[in-house]
Specification:
alpha+beta; Diaminopimelate Epimerase, Chain A, domain 1; 2 domains; 20-stranded mixed beta sheet; 37% strand; isomerase; PrpF-like; isomerase activity; PrpF protein
Length: 396
């Protein structure tokens, strides 16, 4: 190692996000103890984890660039995952997602990240956490290849996600096969296909898909009534018609990020909807708010502009896309009203970087699963510095 204060880690792209991945057994003992307890960390434990991730990612950074760490200056590039053996016999691995504030370094572990979830299975396989066997094996040009279906459990939402991806045998061990012909909007080049199936996704942080019991609620913000669908599928979301706040589908995220007045109004709407859902309005990661529009191009069912951590997203967070795809099939919701319904089970969602297709399996009103395709790539495997450069950190 080039420096004395470091932890083994990998740096992955999953979908349209990037993050630092840790195997739980490689973390300091105090950190392992917190996660293995499966209890909500107390304030002192939470602050200690916050300091750990802030140092890794390079936060807080008033310049918003995270130059002193692994972060990339925006919410989709300031994330981390901790992966380990599952405590359940019917699950292969457990994982916990951490969102780290860019400018303030605040830690948020309230929800899940669907994009980074696509890299959990490949990371678990490569690090020896998966003990199952591949299926559909074949040999091409002397290379032994197969598929893996791994059951992963997100501890933030207590939900199970099945991940199916390609593998190959390397020196007797199965490894994730990155190369392939699958492309997703927002990511250059191609990679192998990863199919994520979010099982029984309704009620991730509340008790049901419609926490208020209504397909549409009215939120009063500054004396103005705003119609919103408050939906909890995969991750909670607040969906409004973007035209109700004077926005349009053709405006790019940078324009919205420059409109501080509207951003503040949307945050007030988000907080009002959060309270109605029975969630904490002071947690900024969930629920997220999404502006919806009629499809702006042929082949799309609906268009959207998502916000994350009070910033306009350049694509759409996967868990929100899953939520939106299912919501488009839920009678009476705003997504359902705006969708073209081009496909019986799937929804093609337009976002600022392209499109994303979500499949919803609904039987007799019960949401059984939500599916989508992602890709992933490991950028680096090695050690990451866990100090932010402060002397006090290494004297504890």
């Amino acid at each position: 190692m080039a420096f004395p204060y470091a932890v083994k880690a990998s740096f992955w792209r999953g979908g349209t996000s990037k993050g630092v991945f840790f195997k739980i057994s490689d973390l300091p003992e105090w950190f392992q103890s917190i996660l293995n307890s499966e209890k909500q960390p107390d304030n002192a434990q939470f602050r200690r984890m916050e300091g750990f991730f802030a140092a890794v990612m390079g936060s807080p950074d008033p310049y918003g660039r995270q130059l002193n760490g692994m972060g990339g200056g925006i919410s989709s590039l300031s994330k981390a995952m901790v992966v380990g053996p599952s405590s359940r016999a019917d699950v292969d691995v457990d994982y916990t997602f951490f969102q780290i504030g860019v400018k303030d370094g605040k830690l948020d572990m309230a929800g899940n990240c669907g994009n980074l979830s696509s890299a959990v299975g490949p990371f678990a396989l490569n690090t020896g956490l998966f003990r199952g066997q591949p299926h559909n094996g074949s040999r091409t040009h002397g290379v032994e290849a197969a598929s893996v279906t791994m059951r992963t459990r997100n501890t933030n939402t207590k939900k199970i996600i099945e991940s199916t991806f390609e593998v190959f045998r390397d020196n007797g061990a199965w490894q994730y096969l990155e190369l392939g012909n699958c492309s997703i909007d927002g990511v250059p080049s191609t990679a192998s296909t990863i199919i994520l199936s979010f099982l029984d996704p309704e009620g991730s942080k509340t008790s049901k898909a419609l926490p208020t019991g209504n397909a549409v609620d009215e939120l009063k913000v500054g004396g103005q009534p705003i119609r919103a669908s408050l939906i909890d599928v995969s991750n909670p979301g607040i969906f409004i018609d973007g035209r109700d706040v004077g926005w349009n589908a053709d405006a790019d995220p940078e324009k919205l990020n420059a409109n501080q007045e509207l951003l503040e109004k949307l945050e007030r709407i988000r907080k009002e909807g959060t309270k109605k859902m029975g969630l904490d309005p002071n947690i900024s990661s969930i629920p997220k708010i999404v502006l919806l529009f009629p499809a702006k191009a042929d082949g799309m069912d609906i268009s959207c502009q998502a916000l994350s951590m009070e910033q306009a997203h350049k694509a759409v967070p996967v868990t929100l896309a899953l939520n939106l795809g299912v919501a488009c099939k839920m009678e009476g919701t705003i997504p359902n009203q705006l969708s073209k319904h081009l496909h019986e089970a799937n929804t093609v969602i337009g976002h600022p970087s392209g499109t994303l297709e979500v499949g919803a399996a609904i039987d007799d009103g019960r949401i059984q699963s939500a599916k989508l395709i992602r890709t992933a790539r490991c950028h680096m495997d090695g050690f990451v510095n866990i100090t932010g450069g402060e002397v006090e950190e290494i004297q504890q």
